[in-house]
Amino acid sequence: MTGDIRWHPGSADAALRARCAGQRGLTVWLTGLSGAGKSTIAVAAERALLEKGCLAMRLDGDNLRHGLNAGVGFDEAGRAEAVRRAGEAALLLAECGAVAIVAMISPYRADRDRVRARHAEAGIPFLEAFVDVPLAVAESRDPKGLYAKARRGEIAGFTGIDAPYEAPVSAELHLRTGLDTAESCVAALVAGTISASRGA
Question: Is 78 inside any structural domain?
């Protein structure tokens, strides 16, 4: 059956879609520990971009678990699949000329690199934003109480506790939420996004 499935190319290209949207589509991928501030920054950045007339759509890792990623596990294979699906959804949005803002822990570098490679194949810009915070700070915030559960052994394979987080090596944006304010991190993300969407 799979041999009968063929790719159907279209006649519209990224340049035509960019003209229609008034901007170049791209994906901004926020990665970092739970509690680093990814969702907070993504929500504010999405609103700020829209208010500036920049078409943007936020894809939050937790929100995707209610639909696109429902039923996908939290083991290494499950996380890889969740990242792959989010990456494909972001790519579709970006190909339409929108700014896709993805906020996911996405702990494994190889998974994020595969999403980057898919964007490169399509000629779509991909900006990785490392939302950087020391584990102790993230754990002190613990907005969902997950670190406490992981420390008690109620959650296995929790990123930063008994599962690894592989930080980006050369992220386009480095947001230090343990040192800088959320407002300054959002401003940096918005500025970098607008510059990239306008081809600067």
Answer: yes
